[in-house]
Amino acid sequence: MNCFMCKGNLEKRKVNYVVDLEDTIIIIKGVPAKVCTQCGEQYFDDETAENTEVTIVNYKEKVA
């Protein structure tokens, strides 16, 4: 499989997945992905997406 964006080669790696939701930033470390060696685009398979669980903690409510 080649990169959809630039047609570069993909290799398996573990990456940090970062999402910015309104005033919350979520970082998931060590997520299996295929990464383009040319442009860095990341691809996640269906199994990885289905098995990723995220817990969101509101700092304002937990620290006081």
Short description:
The chain is mostly beta strands.
What's the end-to-end separation, in Å?
50 Å
Order of helices and strands: EEEHH
Indicate the multimeric state: single chain
CATH architecture annotation name: Roll
Please tally the helical runs, counting DSSP H or I stretches of 4 or more residues: 2
Which fold name fills CATH's third level, the topology? Ubiquitin-like (UB roll)
The 3D shape can be described as elongated
Radius of gyration over C-alpha positions, nearest whole angstrom: 15 Å
Determine the mean pLDDT: 87
Report the strand count: 3
Low-confidence stretches: none
In the CATH scheme, the class would be Alpha Beta
**What is the number of independent domains?**
1
Strand order of the largest sheet: 1-2-3
Beta fraction: 35-45%
The largest pleated sheet is described as:
3 strands, antiparallel
The structure class reads mainly beta
Q: Work out the helicity level.
A: 10-25%
Structure in words:
This protein has a single domain (10-62), classed as Ubiquitin-like (UB roll), CATH 3.10.20. Helix content is 14%, strand content 42%. It has helices at 46-50, 59-62, and strands at 10-21, 24-36, 42-43. The protein has a three-stranded antiparallel sheet with strand order 1-2-3, with no helix packed on it. The model has no long low-confidence stretch (mean pLDDT 87).
